[in-house]
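BUG-95 | component: ligand-complex export | severity: low

The export step for nicotinamide-adenine-dinucleotide jobs runs without errors, but we want the raw record kept on the ticket for reference. Input record follows.
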Amino acid sequence: MSGAGAGARGAVLVTGGAGFIGSHVVAALLARGERVAVVDDLSSGKAANLPEGVRLLVGDLADPAVAAAAVAGCDRVVHCAARPSVTLSVADAPL
Ligand SMILES: NC(=O)c1ccc[n+]([C@@H]2O[C@H](COP(=O)([O-])OP(=O)(O)OC[C@H]3O[C@@H](n4cnc5c(N)ncnc54)[C@H](O)[C@@H]3O)[C@@H](O)[C@H]2O)c1
C-alpha cells in the first residue's frame, strides 16, 4: 500500500467500534480523513457512540459469515472488539 493516496484506499474496519476504545479510534480515523466501517455485536457497546454516517454491521465476530461481511471493502483492520471483563470471559468462554 505504500505510495497509495488516502483516496485510493479502502475503508478501515474497526471491530468493537461502538465500545469505549473503539469509538475513540473511529473518531481519530475520521479526523484523519479515513473512511471507517464498524462491526460490533453491541454486547457492551452502543450504536450511539458512533458518529452519523459510519457503516455499522451488528453481529458476532466469532461468526465467520459476519467476519467476512465486515471486511468487505476494507483493507485495514483495527481490532478493538473484546469482552474486557476477565470474570465474564472465564464464566462464558465459547471459543
Ligand atoms: N478501557 C480501557 O481503559 C482499556 C485500556 C487498555 C486496554 N483496553 C483493551 O481494549 C479493548 C477494548 O476495551 P473497551 O474498554 O473499549 O471495552 P468495551 O466493552 O467498551 O468495547 C468492546 C466492544 O467490543 C464489542 N464486542 C465484544 N464482543 C464482540 C464480538 N464477539 N463481536 C463483535 N463485537 C464484540 C462490544 O459490544 C464493545 O462495543 C479490550 O481488549 C481492553 O482490554 C482497554
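Assignee comment: Attached the raw record above. Residues 1-5 have pLDDT under 50 and may be disordered.
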